[in-house]
# Entry
Amino acid sequence: MTNTALLAFEALKTGSVGIAGNTGAVLQRSLLATRGLIERSLGEVRLTQGVQNRELIEMSPFIAELTQAATLEARARDITLVVMAVADGVTVEADRQVLAAVVGNLLQNACKFTRPRTTVTLRVSASTERVLIDVEDECGGLSPGKVEELFSPFQQRSSDRTGLGLGLAFSRWGTHANNGELHARNLPGKGCVFTVDLPRHTVAAVAPAALH
# Structure
């Protein structure tokens, strides 16, 4: 990936090709892939050391930050990324870096497998006790009985054979480490929905002081 980016950069330096052409697109894809590898590697290192940096994370700004990078990924692959509005005050307690790697990986996975000129949708919903982060793609759906196989390590689904097949397995590990669950749902003939299900952080009500 890095070598490809360097070759594209050298070609652009000559001035004989434009940044808006194929060479610029190659450079962009290479940089996106490199960034994704670095982010996943950092998340995996944090996870192997244990989740030690839990903090309160408000979903609205957290999702906004993640989707800035995901939008570039989607554009590079001719995909529309739709991010649904997140209600204010929805908060979880988690390791920010690990959770960002989990959701970022799900978005990258969706962009990788969804069909060109279709849509990847990111939505957050909440009940009084749970927060659900859904990433929905339009990959065309899966064969019956194939959903759980997605989470097996070293299962390579990509037609271009890129990656090690660890992404979804890591996402499940990272979700579990933050006291959550990761589920997948097949939409036959359309795509898949991956759901990160986390406990919602709520502020305990303070009992009124006893009257003396």
